[in-house]
Specification:
Structural class of chain B: mainly beta
Largest interface: A-B, 43 and 32 residues
Strand content of chain A: 5-15%
Oligomer: heterodimer
Helix content of chain B: 10-25%
Number of strands of chain A: 14
Distance between the termini of chain B: 18 Å
Chain lengths: 619, 77
């Protein structure tokens, strides 16, 4: 039976209604994020298997209205309102906030599609003193209602069963003589006055937390503390798995070296493929930890508070409180970060956020920073507590953030837009993290990172290995030949060609090769360096940083990677736009070639000029 | 009076909204005439402001709160 024969169910609801948790409960890990062809829009589909049957479930982005204000909401509407309507909509509503949750429901109820109403967060409703007469509500609406607890899984089995039974189209009319928001809300009020009662009112814990979390002093301190904690975890916690991964790859390449017959295949595998892959896999732990904290902040409701307290500051820079999520996610990866700008309703706010987010130091820069810093900066303690290397790393993050904010200010004055910016945002109730949701997200991000970045890096490494191992024929020869020295290879020749343009910022032709390859993706820098140096010196499997450190200028005998060169490289990688995938996403999100082109030019220009200044200052 | 002028804890009823590019959005979020609204807390620098609106918390900037006309129902907490 093909997927087309299954029942097709759509999950809809407001943001913060617990929709994602319910989706995870219904589908388990049977879910897949697919890209809608030609767009970056992610379609979250899952399969529900139960003893009653099999159904395909599509999750939609949470939205407040059928007349969408943001791109994210637009997508939700497109999934429902198309040529291939679903068999049934499962509408997830927060029972503790039924009035507003029923607004979007009222619009969906007019589409002639059967609806099941899943009332989530009944525990919060009870706490608030709300008593919901579901039988009465069922009768008024003319549909089946199920109480669920997406947190504990209560009521999920009944809901699963209901999906395979006949369902109904709501018959309650939310429209009066005219149809506007006021009339709809009045009709919802009327409906709820018959079915919802209020007994007592408990003060919500959320309000008490907010008194501290949004406090003018404590609020910012907590936010800075949170960032510091994330930063520390990314470096300290990720260090152990990273060492295991490095050790694992070392064992693997040693084993291959001992057990494979000598020849081009062995060289390709060890110096091309394995060296390149090791460079990517090694920073999966850091990505997972970053996404874990992002997920934690969003899931608990804290991220909305950060947006709330940061809005006033960011507004002056042409951004909005809603830019916080993309900017912080940019520290993990610019691609999902740019996609998360869809929640920003104002075009100018959104565009500026897209343009500056890639300046935030993403995790692809991490291995580059790590390698360079460990080469040039001594691992010295300052005042007995601060590690100098860690301090320089922190400085790189600050540098990226400051650059992003200044760039935003510049764009604010360049981009012209008439419609005023606004900030209208729900502050959801705090709740304890739903670990399962967070881990599923981390797992999906790590998987897509490995497969996407992995593909690019694998291809680039193999091509690079060839270019670095073979060279043009010498006089009289006709065939390409295997070369002894890197400077005779194709890669060497290319590096030499661009050397004059990068000499002013302190880079030699070897770095030039890495610059070219890392225009596909920054992290390729480390892989390229490994490949370049292992092609030159095949017997030595020592750490790449030792090889680079001992590299000297043949003319002067001075080390190639002097402090000036390393600092110049650091600044260059902080600012330069070296990520084809990001440019592609910017094009898809803005629908104009102009923006990725401007982004590429301004970032790379900024990188070149800054590196020039740094190199001239330190050399 | 305007929503932006309420002090924390004052309960008011929305009477009308003036025209703006985000009027529809405010109304969809529940800011319709007749709805009860109460300022809950202010962000640092006094802007944006979070309001309790018919069972949930909605935050908006002062500029947005100035487009909403309200009538005070209860002055004290």
């Amino acid at each position: 039976m093909s997927i087309g024969d299954h029942k097709h169910i759509i999950l809809a609801g407001n943001p913060n209604s617990g929709k994602s948790s319910l989706f995870n409960h219904l589908t388990g890990l049977n879910q897949k994020i697919t890209n809608v062809p030609g767009t970056t829009i992610e379609n979250k589909k899952g399969i529900l298997k139960s003893q009653h049957g099999v159904a395909q479930i599509t999750d939609t982005p949470g939205t407040y209205s059928f007349f969408p204000k943001s791109l994210d909401e637009m997508e939700a509407v497109k999934l429902i309102n198309n040529d291939n309507p679903p068999h049934c909509i499962v509408y997830v509503a927060d029972a503790s906030n039924l009035k507003r949750n029923l607004y979007y429901f009222s619009q969906l109820s007019e589409m002639n599609i059967p609806i099941i109403l899943a009332l989530n967060m009944m525990d919060v409703a009870h706490f608030k003193g709300l008593i919901i007469d579901t039988e009465r509500l069922e009768k008024e609406l003319g549909i089946n209602i199920y109480k669920v607890n997406a947190r504990t899984g209560e009521g999920i089995d009944q809901l699963k069963e209901a999906i395979f039974q006949d369902q109904f189209i709501p018959h309650y009319s939310f429209k009066g003589e005219e149809d506007n928001q006021e009339v709809r809300y009045n009709r919802i009020d009327k409906l709820l006055s018959k079915s919802v009662g209020q007994v007592n009112k408990n003060e919500l814990i959320s309000n008490k937390i907010d008194a501290v979390a949004t406090h003018p002093v404590w609020g910012f301190l907590i936010f800075i503390g949170t960032l510091f904690l994330i930063f520390q975890s990314v470096f300290m916690l990720a260090d152990y798995p990273m060492q295991w991964i490095e050790a694992g790859f070392e064992i693997l390449s040693d084993w291959l070296n001992d057990n494979l017959a000598a020849g081009w295949f062995k060289k390709l595998l060890i110096n091309g493929v394995i060296a390149g892959l090791a460079g990517v896999v090694v920073f999966v732990p850091q990505i997972v930890i970053l996404f874990f904290f992002m997920g934690l902040m969003e899931d608990t409701g804290y991220m909305a508070r950060v947006s709330f307290i940061m809005d006033r500051l960011l507004r002056g820079l042409g951004l909005s409180g809603k830019s916080v999520i993309p900017l912080l996610s940019g520290a993990a990866c610019a691609i999902p970060a740019i996609m998360s700008t869809r929640t920003i309703e104002n075009w100018k706010d959104r565009l500026i956020t897209i343009m500056v987010t890639p300046l935030m130091s993403c995790s692809a820069r991490l291995p580059v920073y790590t390698l360079l810093i460990s080469m040039a900066i001594p691992s010295k303690m300052i005042w007995g507590v601060l590690n100098l290397q860690a301090l320089v790393m922190l400085a790189m993050y600050v540098l990226g953030t400051v650059a992003a904010l200044i760039a935003a200010l510049v764009f604010k004055f360049i981009i012209k837009h008439q419609i005023p910016s606004f900030f209208i945002m729900e502050l959801p109730l705090y709740h304890t993290p739903r670990w399962k949701n967070i881990w599923i997200t981390c797992w999906q991000k790590a998987k897509s990172f490995l497969s996407e970045a992995g593909k690019v890096i694998l291809i680039v490494s193999v091509i690079l290995w060839f270019l670095a191992s073979y060279g043009p024929p010498t006089e009289g020869g006709i065939k390409v030949q295997e070369v002894e020295k890197l400077d005779q290879s194709y890669a060497g020749k290319i590096g030499k060609v661009i050397e004059p343009t990068i000499e002013p910022i302190g880079f030699n032709w070897k770095i030039g090769i890495a610059l070219i390859t890392s225009f596909a993706a920054r992290e390729v820098f480390v892989g390229t360096m490994s490949t370049i140096y292992s092609v030159e010196d095949e017997e030595n499997f020592a750490q790449i940083r030792q090889k680079m450190r001992s590299d000297t200028d043949p003319d002067t005998g001075e080390p190639v990677y002097s402090i000036a060169v390393v600092l110049s490289l650091l600044v260059f990688y902080a600012f330069a736009m070296q990520c084809i995938s990001t440019l592609a996403v910017v094009y898809k999100e803005t629908k104009q070639w102009k923006w990725p082109v401007i982004q590429f030019v301004y970032m790379t220009g900024l990188a070149y000029i800054s590196s020039f200044i740094v190199y001239q200052l330190f050399s | 009076m305007l929503l932006a002028e309420l002090s924390i804890g004052q309960l008011a009823k929305i009477t009308s909204l003036s025209e703006s590019s985000y009027k529809d959005h405010l109304q969809e979020m529940g800011c319709v005439p007749g709805a009860l609204i109460k300022p809950l807390l202010k962000a640092p620098f006094g802007d944006p402001i979070a309001y309790e609106l018919e069972g949930y918390t909605l935050s908006m900037r002062k500029a947005e709160a100035r487009t909403i006309e309200v009538q005070i129902i209860k002055t004290q907490e």
